[in-house]
């Protein structure tokens, strides 16, 4: 016999259906535990990579310990043009040749195809290793990672760990033989950090390489977590091949949708634009150990390297066995792994049909239950709960930043001190807010479930319009809620079988939802903290609704003043706890790595030590001066090395102090005019010999606008036009690893004089002794020599290119 809940008795007690409150509470406990286990299993599976294998693993297996052992020979800042960069390239060639592979170095010059000033160009040297000698009749799988770094990072994770993974995977497969129609290319690519220049040279593949069957691009955007498929292009077949060896695969089209919103990219974009089927595989937890001083070998997670290597080996093995990797996908395809065990694909029309069915179901159930007014009230309370959770998530970091003097949270060893606690407290506040609001709801249990299903359906519709690849996520909540309400109200067998099925479906759906959200949020903790709080409140609301629905436990009670106060104060209390914990945290240790540079301006005859830090720490204060003022560095700082907009580059610039000894005999860059005819200006630039980068930009006299450049070329190659990614308001170029002389040509909108500035960025401190030999810099600054946080930038005199005669 189907049972229905009794009306509230007005005493504040729990009203239950036939069978007694004890059985109802026991059932609620069982369902609650089941759903919490689903959350834990789903999220945990995406937070913890598989265990790493040590160097005792069989030679036929991938070993993270062996890979990390090889990483020690790679770690160190290696921007293009530096001595370390050249040293690592030679080491990689030697290692791959020792495996018996066919190795070649692909040299070239490329420009950042995205366009926009400051334009980026550079000389690159890709290290390529073929399993079999390249041949036009072989289809080739490319496994790629980049070996360059940003100037301020040792690059142990980004992307040294993936380079090491490729070396270990190459060792395993080096004894295998490829079939006559297939080949594997291990590509260690240059220039990723300078505009994906090496990938552009790589895509100019000669015909003798054969057809490119697919590309596996290995990246690191953090220092841990599972190696996940963050996006793919025409390579859905790779999702199964990555797990062919039994390795769990983490993949979701939701991350693909999110990546489309972010300005940062990987070499994936170059491969995609060239039409190569490509998979972007990356681990991205703990992003604070990424592209900075803390990206050291101590912060490499062997489990992440193991997960990446196992999937790489599985894909290569499947490829050599004849597997089909390239596979097209319909626009907006929703795909996700089912807890690492299988792969699900939902085309956009299927998502739309499911959304339509959910809408029809909601309308029919609302009519049957006569719950229009109750649905509106319950939905409003749920919206308030989700909004309150989002406000908490959005307010935490700014408030903490105000309390801690501008830093979001004190930094220690590259981690936000207490960041896990802050995240947990924010998420717990979301849970508390959702549960308390549902406890205050006077709506019947099916109505609360319908209201939540309706909100999730609205979210699905919004995502179908804005981010279709993520539209499946809210449906994971809507579907089990509607199944439960429909079965409870309309179908027989609810008492036992219906409840079991509803609880099981809800557990699976919540596990999938938790897995996807955990995978995404760990990569963008600080960026998406408000989203994380909202999603946590959503999961808490879904669990509360399912428990109340399946266990027949009413959650509505008369609003009492203490509980009403607690409800209203839940978000505020969460913020207070977060801030108290933050204030009790230990201060950041000192000294801490600094972004220290010396700018030698030959036009003014002055030099200045500067740092981009918010305040001078122990390592920088004696260089910039303890009383250094925060100011714009646009007057002496070219755009290229830091890639920040002119006029907005702010740092602490101190008084002119002793220049580094290494600059004493350095001549500045020079400019030689070659042609001035009409609106054309052609000139040659020679930088400081051995400099790792050359920067050239138009100088502006006073407040007037810079001369408009309609077309430009570098050594005869046209510069791609486009909007500036950095807000730079004039024509500028950064040339990484430049030759001795570079010829530029500008076409101006008007025949006007042009004033040029040129800067050479010298080698890192280890090679030049820029910091080590400076008497004005304290001995503690020698810690900088392990990572080049000190650059010497030599800026030229002003060069006038006059109007054409």
Automatic annotation (TrEMBL):
Gene Ontology MF annotations: metalloexopeptidase activity
Keywords (A to Z) from UniProt: Membrane, Transmembrane, Transmembrane helix
InterPro entries: M28_fam, Peptidase_M28
GO terms under biological process: proteolysis
Pfam families: Peptidase_M28
Transmembrane segments: 25-43, 348-370, 382-404, 416-435, 447-465, 471-488, 500-521, 527-552, 564-585
Peptidase M28 domain: residues covered: 126-315
Stored PANTHER family: METALLOPEPTIDASE M28 FAMILY MEMBER (PTHR12147), PEPTIDASE M28 DOMAIN-CONTAINING PROTEIN (PTHR12147:SF26)
The protein's name in its UniProt record: Peptidase M28-like protein
Organism, scientific name: Microbacterium lacticum
């Amino acid at each position: 016999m189907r049972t229905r809940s009794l009306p509230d008795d007005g005493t504040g007690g729990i009203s239950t259906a036939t069978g007694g409150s004890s059985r109802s509470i026991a059932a609620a406990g069982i369902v609650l535990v089941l759903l919490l286990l689903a959350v834990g299993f789903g999220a945990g599976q995406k937070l913890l990579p598989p265990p790493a294998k040590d160097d005792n693993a069989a030679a036929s297996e991938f070993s993270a310990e062996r890979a990390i052992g090889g990483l020690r020979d790679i770690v160190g800042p290696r921007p293009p043009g530096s001595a370390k960069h050249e040293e690592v390239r030679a080491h990689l060639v030697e290692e791959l040749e020792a495996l018996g592979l066919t190795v070649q170095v692909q040299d070239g010059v490329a420009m950042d195809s995205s366009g926009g000033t400051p334009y980026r160009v550079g000389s690159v040297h890709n290290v390529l290793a073929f399993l079999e000698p390249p041949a036009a009749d072989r289809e080739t799988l490319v496994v790629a990672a980049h070996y360059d770094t940003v100037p301020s990072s040792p690059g142990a994770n980004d992307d040294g760990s993936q380079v090491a993974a490729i070396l270990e995977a190459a060792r395993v497969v080096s004894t295998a033989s490829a079939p006559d129609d297939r080949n594997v290319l291990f590509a260690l690519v240059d220039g990723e950090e300078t505009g994906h220049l090496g990938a552009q040279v790589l895509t100019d593949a000669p015909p003798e390489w054969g057809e490119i069957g697919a590309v596996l691009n290995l990246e690191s955007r953090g220092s841990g977590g599972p190696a996940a498929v963050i996006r793919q292009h025409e390579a859905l077949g790779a999702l199964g091949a990555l797990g062919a060896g039994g390795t769990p695969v983490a993949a979701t089209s939701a991350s693909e949708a999110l990546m489309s919103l972010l300005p940062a990219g990987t070499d994936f974009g170059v491969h995609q634009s060239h039409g190569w089927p490509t998979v972007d595989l990356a681990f991205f937890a703990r992003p604070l150990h990424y592209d900075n001083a803390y990206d050291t070998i101590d912060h490499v997670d062997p489990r992440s390297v193991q997960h990446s290597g196992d999937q790489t080996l599985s894909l290569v093995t499947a490829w050599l066995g004849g597997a089909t990797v390239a596979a097209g996908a319909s626009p907006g395809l929703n795909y996700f792994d089912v807890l690492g065990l299988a792969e699900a694909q939902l085309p956009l029309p299927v998502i739309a049909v499911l959304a339509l069915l959910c809408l029809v179901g909601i309308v029919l159930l609302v009519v049957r239950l006569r719950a229009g007014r109750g649905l509106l009230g319950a939905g409003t309370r749920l919206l308030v709960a989700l909004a309150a959770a989002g406000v908490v998530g959005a307010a935490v970091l700014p408030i903490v930043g105000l309390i801690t003097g501008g830093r979001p949270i004190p930094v220690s060893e590259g981690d936000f001190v207490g960041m896990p606690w802050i995240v947990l407290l924010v998420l717990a506040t979301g849970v508390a807010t959702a549960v308390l609001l549902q406890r205050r709801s006077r709506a019947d249990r099916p109505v609360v479930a319908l209201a939540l299903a309706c909100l999730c359906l609205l979210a699905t519709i919004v995502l179908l319009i804005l981010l279709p690849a993520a539209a499946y996520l809210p449906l994971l909540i809507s579907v089990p809620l509607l199944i439960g309400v429909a079965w409870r109200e309309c179908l027989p067998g609810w008492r036992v079988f219906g409840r079991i099925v509803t609880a099981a479906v809800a557990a699976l759906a919540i596990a999938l939802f938790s897995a996807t959200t955990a995978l995404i949020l760990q990569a963008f903790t600080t960026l998406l903290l408000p989203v994380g709080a909202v999603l946590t409140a959503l999961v808490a609301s879904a669990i509360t609704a399912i428990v109340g629905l399946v266990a027949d436990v009413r959650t509505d009670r008369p609003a009492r003043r203490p509980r009403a106060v607690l409800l209203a104060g839940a978000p505020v209390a969460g913020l207070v706890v977060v801030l108290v914990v933050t204030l009790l945290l230990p201060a950041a240790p000192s000294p801490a790595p600094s972004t220290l540079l010396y700018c030698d301006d030959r036009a003014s005859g002055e030099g200045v030590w500067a740092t981009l830090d918010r305040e001078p720490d122990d390592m920088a204060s004696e260089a910039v001066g303890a009383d250094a003022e925060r100011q714009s560095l646009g007057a002496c700082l070219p755009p290229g090395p830091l890639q920040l907009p002119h006029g907005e580059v702010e740092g602490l610039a101190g008084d002119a102090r002793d220049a580094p000894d290494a600059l004493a005999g350095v001549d500045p860059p020079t400019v030689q005019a070659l042609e001035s005819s009409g609106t054309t200006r052609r000139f040659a630039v020679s930088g400081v010999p051995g400099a790792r980068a050359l920067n050239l930009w138009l100088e502006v006299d006073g407040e007037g606008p810079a001369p408009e450049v309609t077309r430009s070329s570098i050594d005869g190659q046209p510069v791609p036009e486009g909007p500036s990614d950095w807000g730079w308001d004039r024509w500028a170029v950064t040339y990484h690893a430049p030759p001795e002389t570079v010829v530029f040509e500008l076409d101006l909108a008007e025949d006007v004089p042009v004033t040029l500035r040129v800067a050479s960025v010298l080698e890192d401190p280890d090679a030049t002794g820029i910091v080590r030999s400076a008497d004005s810099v304290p001995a503690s600054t020698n810690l900088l020599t392990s990572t080049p946080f000190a650059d010497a930038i030599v800026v030229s005199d002003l060069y006038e290119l006059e109007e054409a005669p």
